[in-house]
């Protein structure tokens, strides 16, 4: 069946979303078409506003409408503890726990030489500047536990070393409700090495 050009374009654009294949993009496109015109106008406006009004915080690289994000502007947060994350979704996940009251630094990626992503492609220079100020006493590295996340964590540690900052890594291991027999060796190994007193 010949698909009308505007629909084909919409499906093509939606299929560029991460994790969205052509079938899902087609379902989303037809969902949008079934909505009233007001919904499509609102969606287009929201996309335009998000793209034009949201920018990086000049301190931590979180998303913000202002130059400094609400987290960096909050004087009640502990400026001596800095949590380094790969992306804004990771920051949001940690923030949702309500457990962390320090500040963040968003790298916007991980080191991935095979994909051409090196130190200059991440927000590492501004991290070095923040550490050089002397305000940070502990750096919590909360990158993923894959090869690229681990390489990035080691690189961040190397950057922090000259500044006398304590560098810690978030714990990883067996998830709540997980059965040992179904865990992979790396997960079990991390759980054992990261054990704590009961």
Low-confidence runs: none
Oligomer: single chain
| Secondary structure: helix percent | 40-55%
Structural class: alpha/beta
What proportion of the residues form beta strands (DSSP E)? 5-15%
Which CATH first-tier class of the largest domain would you pick? Alpha Beta
> What topology, given as strand order, has the largest sheet?
4-3-5-6
CATH architecture name of the largest domain:
3-Layer(aba) Sandwich
Termini Cα gap: 64 Å
Helices and strands, in N-to-C order? HHHEEHEHEHEHEH
* Overall number of strands: 6
Number of domains: 2
Radius of gyration from CA coordinates: 21 Å
Number of helical elements: 8
- pLDDT average, as an integer? 92
CATH topology type of the largest domain: Dna Topoisomerase Vi A Subunit, Chain: A, domain 2
Outline, from the CA principal axes?
globular
Q: Topology of this structure?
A:
Elements: H1 5-14, H2 22-34, H3 37-53, E1 55-56, E2 63-64, H4 70-73, E3 78-85, H5 88-97, E4 102-106, H6 124-132, E5 138-142, H7 147-160, E6 166-169, H8 185-193
Parallel strand pairs: 3-4, 3-5, 5-6
Antiparallel strand pairs: 1-2
Helix pairs in contact: 1-2
């Amino acid at each position: 069946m010949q698909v009308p050009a505007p629909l084909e374009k919409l499906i093509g654009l939606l299929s560029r979303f991460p994790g969205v294949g052509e079938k899902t993009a087609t379902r989303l496109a037809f969902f949008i078409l079934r909505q009233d015109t007001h919904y499509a106008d609102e969606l287009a406006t929201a996309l335009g506003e998000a793209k034009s009004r949201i920018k990086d915080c000049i301190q931590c690289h979180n998303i913000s409408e202002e130059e400094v994000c609400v987290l960096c502007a909050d004087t009640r947060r502990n400026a001596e503890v800095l949590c380094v994350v790969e992306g804004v979704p990771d920051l949001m996940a940690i923030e949702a726990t309500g457990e962390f009251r320090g500040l963040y630094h968003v790298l916007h990626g991980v080191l991935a030489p095979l994909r051409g992503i090196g130190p200059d492609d991440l927000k590492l220079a501004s991290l070095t500047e923040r550490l050089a100020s002397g305000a940070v006493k502990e750096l919590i590295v909360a990158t993923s536990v894959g090869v690229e996340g681990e390489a990035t964590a080691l690189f961040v540690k190397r950057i922090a070393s000259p500044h006398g900052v304590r560098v810690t890594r978030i714990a990883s291991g067996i998830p709540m409700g997980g059965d040992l027999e179904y865990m992979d060796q790396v997960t079990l190994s991390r759980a054992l090495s990261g054990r704590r007193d009961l």
